[in-house]
Amino acid sequence: EYEGDRNSDGERHGFGKARLPNGDTYEGQYEHGLRSGRGTYRFKNGALYTGDYLQNKKHGKGVFFYPDGSKYAGDWMHDQREGYGEYLYANGDTYTGEWANNKRHGQGTYVYKDTGSKYVGAWVNGIQEGPAELIHLNHRFKGSFLNGKPLGHGKFIFDIGCEQHGEYIQPVQEEEGEEEDELPLPVEPKWKASEITKLTLWSPHDKEPAP
Q: Entry's Pfam families (predicted)?
Protein backbone atom coordinates (compact mmCIF):
# COMPACT_ATOMS: atom_id res chain seq x y z
CA GLU A 1 0.00 0.00 0.00
CA TYR A 2 1.27 3.49 -0.82
CA GLU A 3 -0.15 6.88 -0.10
CA GLY A 4 1.75 9.97 -1.24
CA ASP A 5 3.33 11.93 -4.07
CA ARG A 6 4.06 10.52 -7.52
CA ASN A 7 5.74 11.99 -10.59
CA SER A 8 4.30 12.16 -14.13
CA ASP A 9 5.51 8.60 -14.80
CA GLY A 10 3.47 7.34 -11.86
CA GLU A 11 6.59 6.54 -9.78
CA ARG A 12 6.64 7.25 -6.03
CA HIS A 13 8.38 10.63 -5.94
CA GLY A 14 8.34 13.20 -3.13
CA PHE A 15 6.86 12.42 0.28
CA GLY A 16 4.92 9.27 0.96
CA LYS A 17 3.93 6.47 3.34
CA ALA A 18 4.17 2.81 2.42
CA ARG A 19 3.30 -0.53 3.99
CA LEU A 20 5.45 -3.34 2.61
CA PRO A 21 4.15 -6.88 1.96
CA ASN A 22 6.27 -8.19 4.91
CA GLY A 23 4.57 -5.82 7.38
CA ASP A 24 7.37 -3.20 7.55
CA THR A 25 6.42 0.46 7.03
CA TYR A 26 8.26 3.48 5.58
CA GLU A 27 7.44 7.14 5.81
CA GLY A 28 9.65 9.68 4.07
CA GLN A 29 11.17 10.85 0.82
CA TYR A 30 11.15 8.98 -2.49
CA GLU A 31 12.91 9.61 -5.79
CA HIS A 32 11.83 7.77 -8.93
CA GLY A 33 10.19 4.95 -6.96
CA LEU A 34 13.06 4.39 -4.50
CA ARG A 35 13.54 5.49 -0.88
CA SER A 36 15.92 8.48 -1.20
CA GLY A 37 16.34 11.38 1.24
CA ARG A 38 15.17 11.48 4.86
CA GLY A 39 12.86 8.77 6.09
CA THR A 40 11.80 6.48 8.91
CA TYR A 41 11.59 2.73 8.38
CA ARG A 42 9.84 0.56 10.99
CA PHE A 43 10.54 -3.17 10.93
CA LYS A 44 7.87 -5.64 11.95
CA ASN A 45 10.31 -7.12 14.54
CA GLY A 46 10.41 -3.80 16.44
CA ALA A 47 13.60 -2.36 14.94
CA LEU A 48 13.52 1.18 13.58
CA TYR A 49 15.79 3.27 11.33
CA THR A 50 15.46 6.99 10.93
CA GLY A 51 17.87 8.90 8.72
CA ASP A 52 19.20 9.27 5.21
CA TYR A 53 18.48 6.92 2.30
CA LEU A 54 19.93 6.66 -1.18
CA GLN A 55 18.25 4.37 -3.72
CA ASN A 56 16.58 2.16 -1.06
CA LYS A 57 19.78 1.85 1.05
CA LYS A 58 20.71 3.44 4.38
CA HIS A 59 23.28 5.99 3.25
CA GLY A 60 24.41 9.17 5.02
CA LYS A 61 23.57 9.89 8.66
CA GLY A 62 21.07 7.82 10.57
CA VAL A 63 20.04 6.16 13.83
CA PHE A 64 19.15 2.48 14.04
CA PHE A 65 17.30 1.07 17.08
CA TYR A 66 17.69 -2.72 17.29
CA PRO A 67 15.08 -5.07 18.81
CA ASP A 68 17.46 -6.03 21.71
CA GLY A 69 17.57 -2.40 22.91
CA SER A 70 20.94 -1.56 21.36
CA LYS A 71 21.34 1.50 19.15
CA TYR A 72 23.73 2.86 16.51
CA ALA A 73 23.91 6.55 15.61
CA GLY A 74 26.31 7.66 12.90
CA ASP A 75 27.43 7.26 9.32
CA TRP A 76 26.07 4.70 6.84
CA MET A 77 27.17 3.67 3.38
CA HIS A 78 25.26 1.20 1.16
CA ASP A 79 23.31 -0.21 4.17
CA GLN A 80 26.50 -0.75 6.23
CA ARG A 81 27.81 1.04 9.33
CA GLU A 82 30.70 2.92 7.72
CA GLY A 83 32.52 6.08 8.79
CA TYR A 84 32.11 7.46 12.32
CA GLY A 85 29.44 6.46 14.81
CA GLU A 86 28.46 5.51 18.32
CA TYR A 87 27.01 2.13 19.28
CA LEU A 88 25.22 1.56 22.59
CA TYR A 89 25.10 -2.19 23.26
CA ALA A 90 22.28 -4.04 25.01
CA ASN A 91 24.54 -4.69 28.06
CA GLY A 92 25.27 -0.94 28.45
CA ASP A 93 28.77 -0.99 26.88
CA THR A 94 29.48 1.74 24.32
CA TYR A 95 31.80 2.10 21.34
CA THR A 96 32.54 5.49 19.79
CA GLY A 97 34.79 5.68 16.76
CA GLU A 98 35.43 4.51 13.24
CA TRP A 99 33.55 1.78 11.35
CA ALA A 100 34.00 -0.14 8.10
CA ASN A 101 31.74 -2.89 6.68
CA ASN A 102 29.52 -2.90 9.79
CA LYS A 103 32.54 -3.57 12.08
CA ARG A 104 34.61 -1.48 14.50
CA HIS A 105 37.60 -0.57 12.33
CA GLY A 106 40.16 2.24 12.74
CA GLN A 107 40.44 4.31 15.92
CA GLY A 108 37.82 3.99 18.61
CA THR A 109 36.98 3.93 22.32
CA TYR A 110 35.10 1.03 23.92
CA VAL A 111 33.74 1.53 27.45
CA TYR A 112 32.82 -1.50 29.60
CA LYS A 113 29.81 -0.54 31.70
CA ASP A 114 30.31 -3.20 34.41
CA THR A 115 33.88 -2.21 35.33
CA GLY A 116 34.15 1.35 34.03
CA SER A 117 37.30 0.28 32.15
CA LYS A 118 37.88 1.56 28.63
CA TYR A 119 39.95 0.56 25.61
CA VAL A 120 41.22 3.51 23.57
CA GLY A 121 43.06 2.61 20.39
CA ALA A 122 43.14 0.68 17.16
CA TRP A 123 40.64 -1.86 15.79
CA VAL A 124 40.82 -4.20 12.80
CA ASN A 125 37.61 -5.87 11.55
CA GLY A 126 35.89 -5.62 14.92
CA ILE A 127 38.88 -6.85 16.96
CA GLN A 128 41.22 -4.88 19.27
CA GLU A 129 44.47 -4.77 17.31
CA GLY A 130 47.38 -2.29 17.22
CA PRO A 131 48.60 0.44 19.61
CA ALA A 132 46.17 1.16 22.43
CA GLU A 133 45.61 2.06 26.05
CA LEU A 134 43.45 0.04 28.44
CA ILE A 135 42.32 2.38 31.21
CA HIS A 136 41.10 0.99 34.57
CA LEU A 137 39.96 2.83 37.69
CA ASN A 138 43.39 3.26 39.34
CA HIS A 139 45.87 2.13 36.69
CA ARG A 140 46.21 1.74 32.95
CA PHE A 141 48.10 -0.36 30.44
CA LYS A 142 49.78 1.14 27.39
CA GLY A 143 51.03 -1.15 24.63
CA SER A 144 49.97 -3.13 21.59
CA PHE A 145 47.16 -5.61 21.04
CA LEU A 146 46.78 -8.57 18.69
CA ASN A 147 43.51 -10.51 18.26
CA GLY A 148 41.97 -8.70 21.21
CA LYS A 149 44.83 -9.52 23.64
CA PRO A 150 47.84 -7.45 24.73
CA LEU A 151 51.08 -8.71 23.17
CA GLY A 152 54.68 -7.47 23.16
CA HIS A 153 56.28 -4.56 25.04
CA GLY A 154 54.16 -2.26 27.16
CA LYS A 155 53.81 -0.71 30.56
CA PHE A 156 51.37 -0.42 33.44
CA ILE A 157 50.97 3.10 34.78
CA PHE A 158 49.75 3.36 38.38
CA ASP A 159 48.01 6.39 39.89
CA ILE A 160 50.44 6.30 42.85
CA GLY A 161 53.06 7.66 40.43
CA CYS A 162 55.09 4.72 39.14
CA GLU A 163 55.23 2.47 36.10
CA GLN A 164 55.93 -1.22 35.60
CA HIS A 165 57.56 -1.95 32.25
CA GLY A 166 57.61 -5.37 30.65
CA GLU A 167 56.08 -7.43 27.89
CA TYR A 168 53.22 -9.81 27.22
CA ILE A 169 54.62 -13.11 25.96
CA GLN A 170 52.60 -15.76 24.12
CA PRO A 171 53.35 -19.06 25.93
CA VAL A 172 54.30 -22.03 23.76
CA GLN A 173 51.59 -24.68 23.45
CA GLU A 174 52.65 -27.94 25.07
CA GLU A 175 51.82 -31.18 23.25
CA GLU A 176 50.05 -33.71 25.43
CA GLY A 177 49.66 -37.37 24.62
CA GLU A 178 48.17 -39.01 21.56
CA GLU A 179 44.82 -37.21 21.39
CA GLU A 180 45.19 -35.14 18.25
CA ASP A 181 41.45 -34.65 17.79
CA GLU A 182 41.12 -32.25 20.73
CA LEU A 183 41.48 -28.60 19.83
CA PRO A 184 44.09 -26.87 21.99
CA LEU A 185 42.62 -24.30 24.38
CA PRO A 186 43.69 -20.76 23.57
CA VAL A 187 46.59 -19.75 25.80
CA GLU A 188 46.47 -16.28 27.37
CA PRO A 189 49.56 -14.09 26.88
CA LYS A 190 51.54 -13.83 30.16
CA TRP A 191 52.92 -10.57 31.58
CA LYS A 192 56.67 -10.56 32.27
CA ALA A 193 57.78 -7.48 34.21
CA SER A 194 61.25 -6.04 33.63
CA GLU A 195 61.51 -2.89 35.80
CA ILE A 196 59.62 -0.30 37.78
CA THR A 197 60.31 3.39 37.07
CA LYS A 198 58.97 6.83 37.74
CA LEU A 199 56.47 8.12 35.17
CA THR A 200 58.02 8.38 31.69
CA LEU A 201 56.93 9.41 28.21
CA TRP A 202 56.73 6.32 26.03
CA SER A 203 54.86 4.99 23.03
CA PRO A 204 54.39 1.34 21.94
CA HIS A 205 56.51 2.05 18.86
CA ASP A 206 59.60 2.68 21.02
CA LYS A 207 62.07 -0.08 21.76
CA GLU A 208 62.26 -1.40 25.33
CA PRO A 209 63.49 1.53 27.49
CA ALA A 210 67.25 1.46 28.13
CA PRO A 211 68.13 0.02 31.56
A: MORN
